[in-house]
Amino acid sequence: MKRKSIIITAILFTGILFVIACGNENSGKESTDQKADAPKEDASAQTEVHGTQIKEGDVKLGNPLDKKMIAEGQATYDMKCQSCHKLTDEKVVGPGWKDVTKRRTPVWIMNMITNVEMMLETDPEAQKLLEQCLVRMPNQNISTENARALVEFMRSNDGEK
Ligand code: HEC
Questions:
Q1: Cα(90)–Cα(52) distance, integer angstroms
Q2: Angle at 121 between CA 118 and CA 126, to 5 degrees
Q3: For residue range 7-29, what is the model confidence (pLDDT) as tens digits?
Q4: C-alpha 57 – ligand 1 centre gap (Å)
């Protein structure tokens, strides 16, 4: 008799624990969901930079290359682009950058860097790349000046002096 009641108590207890655990899991989920939503809204309100569209004539290339801009572009590349782009023609997540300054205009490249959403929605060449890569390049919150420096770094990578 005694043993039976212990077993029953044990079963009931596990049952209750199970219910509590499920309850906790659910409420935990809700609160993390809420947490996940909150910063997202904040982030898009504060930090997402939708650069103004860069137009033909806004960008002037100089010769010889500007060493300071190359260094600035390289620093940004190391930090924010390297994980997806190689400097050779090898594709990682995105296309390799070798000869990118020969396939694209500086304005196109800079819009791709500062306005990637717009480019993927409206530009046929960007859309072709998306079809090949299957990943949308994320907006990296790069300023226009920084994007210009990246172009200088790409020109240098393509052998310009
Ligand atoms: C998470 C991966 C990822 C990161 C990080 C990333 N890109 Fe991209 N990039 C892509 C993909 C993927 C494409 C191809 C277009 C697409 O699918 O959205 C692309 C395309 C490009 C192109 C066009 C290349 C060509 O051959 O015409 C340029 C230029 C470019 N990215 C610049 C940058 C710069 C500059 C940075 C860093 C500030 C950067 N990307 C960071 C994934 C990335």
A1: 30
A2: 90
A3: 545 544 444 444 444 434 444 44
A4: 23
